[in-house]
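Recap for those who missed Tuesday's class. We walked through two folding examples back to back. For each one, the amino acid string is listed first and its predicted structure tokens come directly after. Nothing is annotated here on purpose, so try labeling regions yourself before you check the end of the notes.
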Amino acid sequence: MRFLVLGLDVDIGRLSGDSVHLKELAANLTKIGHEVSVILGASPETEALPAGFYYLKGKRVWSVIREVHLIARAVKPDVIYERRLSPKVGYSVSRLLGVPYFVEVNGIPEAERSILAGRRYEPSWFQIQARRNLLSRAKAVVAVSGSLRDVLVTSYRLDRSKVHVVPNGVDTELFRPMERAACRHELGLERDELILGFVGSLVPWQGVDIMIHTVSELRKARTSVRGVIVGDGPDRQRLEALVEAEALGGQVTFTGSVPYREVPRYIGSFDVALSLKPPMLPGSPLKVREYMSCARPVIASRETQYDFAIVEEAGGGVLVDSTNIREVATAVGELLSDGARRTEMGVRGRNYAVKHCSWRLTAERVAAACRG
């Protein structure tokens, strides 16, 4: 098939889940024999566009539709595949060309923006009806988690059979097991310290504050442990203030944003990797798959809308109530004190990631949804 993928809200020059997902999906659709063209909403400032990628110069909706239509006429797609909860461009170009369109939903962007602004998210009646009209006209909808499918079915009254769950993936060759001491030597970290690690954007729904409180609880119990936080974002200043308030200066390290290819080395330096998200939003976080693919045991949140069940399914870690700091600290402390258990969980997580979580498998599932 010839895919025209619309990533109109994605900046592939920025290290984020959506940019990783878009590039990996396009690359792996190509690897399994499909032709793929990708249109971005803006030119990345930090890297050259890969082959087959285009960016738009216009910003207004009708200007964007016109540009996408011209590119689509040139590449002659069999499928228009838009990554957006309101796929008005895909719908419009589909009608102009008579080509079916499909939609991928990775989250609820307005809900994320409302959380950042400290507001409650309540979509308007018009917004709900407009989205329902666009989504129901798509040939199929791809959701990255079962909980997100439930939101789409309930909120927009979609036929459940029309919504396919295709989770995020991981590059199992890049994210591979590495020797911990070597990783720490290269990163300038202490060889013998116990390290709790996190990788991701610093935003409120990542639960990094829960990690900081956990480090504090463990140190009060005289467990010598360091927190390493890899990433950057709008919540960093608040988190740094929390570190100071908990008297953890020197015990929690913020690395800032790092190159994507260096992320596996940081994960390789961890003893335990954390994803302690509060139950705010549905989704399929990349980081849990990356942790497991690097053979690091994972402690993640129980009873959220994220697809963290794979941690227990793999035997690659432990799920906890992230609202109960004592429970989190106990689980982390028990794992830190048992090196053999950590190693066993790491092996199980790696085996699961290789078998079930590759981006190639994600691409195959997306292609199957579009063929169907």
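Example two. Treat it independently of the first, because the proteins are unrelated.
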Amino acid sequence: MASLNRREFIGGAVAATGLIGTVSAGDGGDKPLKLALIGCGWYGMVNVDAAFKAGGVQVTAVCDVDTAHLKDSADKIEPRQGFRPKLFADYRALLDNCAADAVIIATPPQWHALMFIDALAKGFDIYCEKPLSYDVREGQAMVHAAQKAQRIVQIGFQRRKSKAIQQAREFIRGGGIGKVVQADVQIHYAAGLRDTTVKAPPETLDWDAWCGPAPKLPYCEQIGHFAWRLEKEYGHGHLVDWGIHLIDATRWILDEDMPSSVQAAGGIYYFKDKITTPDVLTAQFDFATCPVVWRHRIWGAEEYTPEVANGIFLYGDKGTVFVTDNRWVLINKGKNADRKVTEVKADMAVDHMQEFLDAVRTRKQPICTTADGHKSTATVKLAMIALQAGRKITWDPDQKQIVNDPEAANLLKRPYRPPYKHPHS
């Protein structure tokens, strides 16, 4: 499969069944791109909405382990395109039986690796939400699969389409604040928790399938749909779920690879016995350019400095830049330095999806490849490993390994729940 280009693949046995679409390098976007969605919850439908706004698409199939999600998503999609997408409860059945050119993967992270690798093996292009993987070794297997398959892949780091971040990046890389000495990154917010009472899952939800290769925890609303982000076994917490966007943007601004070492401290103080990941966390990533320090608190108090509650500070020897989604601020050196505020908005979700759809048509890889998405994902996962280990860890990029710490290195790969098989050998 990996040795075939798109036209050869379409011309082969699979295309003979009429299951795969017909977009290739020479089509120029004349025909609608056919998309399939795996994971029909909140952000899966955000991605679909972005695709429709970008234009030139049809959603031919949707898949979810919750029949309520399936019906709701199909009800919303049908009037936008004039026909109802096919419904699937099992993503493998979708991959085998849908007419699509590309697949959007928007499930919780524990499912990303298996779905991603299987979709590549079937010849699909992929838009995959962040984090790329649940564990670091999964991500390495996904990078290998993507390199082998040579399909078009975009990872959902939409902040790369923030015009404010793009402008700040250009200014900083042009020497605007001199040598960058340190970066501080933070997203403080007040988390709204759901019911933590253990109960039977909704009748529409196949909870065993939802958990997939991850541990199957007793169901409660706080670890089910949407709220899984603060559960260690599924979303792995605020840094991994939301903070990863700004860590990726910081890596991109600094043109950095992976940190050489990571240390972290924090815990559950306000939401004790309600969540399983830190409500307060500080992590330091030692990159070649400079240290990058992440901080979050998710129990409130973002109202104290709301203008900087979500964003990146980059401190240079000639000045400082603060950047967030739609604004960046330049503060020159000196006690009475002026502040130059630049407001610039963008529809990041639509722009990021538009780039992916254009890439599918032109066969030119978009901005956030599998390898780049893996580096940002692995970076934040190293912080969670350092927190669990309770000590500073050192990363060797050549060995792709935590060195001199077998106990911490063992946390790079999570055992899969039978009968699922981990993709990393």
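Answers for example two:
The chain has 13 helices and 16 strands.
Residues 1-29 have pLDDT under 50 and may be disordered.
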